[in-house]
Amino acid sequence: MSSFLDSLKAASQSSVVKRNNFLASFDPNGNEIGIFLEGRDDPSLIRVHSEREAKSKGLSIVVRVLGNKKDVIETWKYFETRFPNNPRLCFFVDKDHDDFLGQVEGITTQGSLFVTKHYSIENYLVTKESIKAVLNDIWGIDSPTVIEAACKDFEKFQQAYRPIFLPMMAWWIAARKFNPKATVNKNNLNFSIFRLDANLKPSLNWSPNMNEHLTKKCNVSNPPSNTNINLATQELQSLPTKCWLRGKQEIWCLVAFLNQLEKNARNAEIKTKIRSQINCGNAVEIIAPRIACPQDLLNYLIARLDRIND
């Protein structure tokens, strides 16, 4: 077996082992920054921008992906006890729906812990800035007029998919908020239920209806009542879409929009030279490095790293 495979096999470790391995070489007064993340997509955005900011200050970073939010929170608490608010330690988690479910931990940024202001990291990528980057870098389109037209269409599309996903997110929140012991498996839903026509009108293809579809696919034994769904809906209606729309589902919207633009161009016999096909599996890693650092993330990084040079 090659040394690469040996190393790869050994790398499959628990969050505690990863924490202890990091601790063995951590210098609380050094120039290396420890970056602790939840999942595999997070480095595409957070590592890239953390590294850029660190390099601008003569610092380096080391990244540890711990697997989930709970592990990052526990690791954060551990290090806060040993090295209180040391700026060489940075922890990143998604807000998720935890603020709607009455959680008090991991819902806002505090000290060394960064919490997304949106549902998750993916939501930061679903913007007209990303559309510009894809059309310019991936499709090779440099016409400002064409790009601006696509961005305007995308902004209209964003308003159109908000009401489509609102009932679904309200159902998820109600299923857990009013039944704390409930387990809701959100990962069984896939891109195939999302529809987008040539006029960029979105819809969700439920079978036979939303309640039965979600109950079955999410493995929920006691689905929420209509009353509780309505209460959750009322709570979400006054809030920005990205606050409650799950990042995975908003990535669906981005991918579907780009797919439909390509299809419309092809049907109109307009040739496009697309370098990479963007799908739900690679959208984050392709787009994240091409957009500016989100302002809340940038503010966090600057505040942390500036303290090292004080």
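(ticket continues) Second input and output from the same batch:
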Amino acid sequence: MKYQYTTAWVLSGGFNLPKDSDEISLFSSENKQFYLTNKPDNLLNNVDIYYALGNMALIGGIGESETGNVRQAALDEQIDNIREARSKKIGQRTVLIFQTTDEIDIQLKGKQFEYENFAVSFEQIDTGHFNKLHKPEIDTMKIALTCQSDHPIAFEYLTSGFNFLSETKKTIFNFSFSMSNISGYVSTPLIEEFVSNIGAMYAGLKDETSLASVYRLFARMTEHDSDNQRAYLAGWTAFERLINKTFSKCEQTFLQPFLQSDQSELRGIFLDRIQDVMKMRYRLKDKFIAITAVLFPSISGAEAESLVKDFARLKAFKDDISHGNPVSENSLPVSELASMLRKYLKARTESDI
């Protein structure tokens, strides 16, 4: 059976849409799409109907399925209330929306209540399955957006919903028996170049599966409900993993200039011995220096030295937390860490390693 799943996140910071555009497609394939919009009502129409029907079922019924008559006035009122509340929550911010249509191995065996434009079923289905299934894709797009922004972005969960499609393509809204409760940033103008870059970066990140844990942790860092300490630790863990994974790919590239001189064979023997001895002894700072040299070959010596100093300072905050030293959450440089992580992740995805 086919299903449709939609989820939405509000961006604080990041991008503003052009004045002449309410909606921009960031990525589109045969069965999934990502959009940025400041008017999400059309894209979230089925989600709104889903929650509106849920409210109606709880407070007085949907209508007579035998005649196909839904209580349309009540449904419209519920949808209006949902959209009004959402509009107040969003304000002037931009919304990231993910939509997908795919197949799932499931059969709705219970009775369906048929209405003119849709059907309703009541079966126990784990709706969290859809959130977990598509979370990696959504996290990847968050990172693509973050890497293309000059400013920090925080993502605040807005809503999500799913529905099935019958063989005749009629929308079926399913409600589980244990239905859950219904319930200062700087932005960059979003120009065509950024849209193209975001789509390309999403495609590149999606294919780089070895960095999946980095994306997941970085996405957790950007989510709006993170407290500063949790956000910092998530970001630092992501950065550590990125450094380690990148170093394993570029160690030979970093050391290659050592071999490009007289007696290269002897130098190679010597280097093999050094690498064997140091294999388990490299410090994180050593690896950071090596990947900086490979990822940013054209930066000045002063800029390279500044990056190393910034890294050491950011690491000191993490060490204080790990050692139980008192650290004020307000003093944690979360945005600075996010900026450095964004810089190195972007460089990694654009490199040939």
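Agent notes: The CA atoms of residues 220 and 234 lie 7 Å apart. The chain has two domains: 2-207, 228-350. Closing as not reproducible unless the customer responds.
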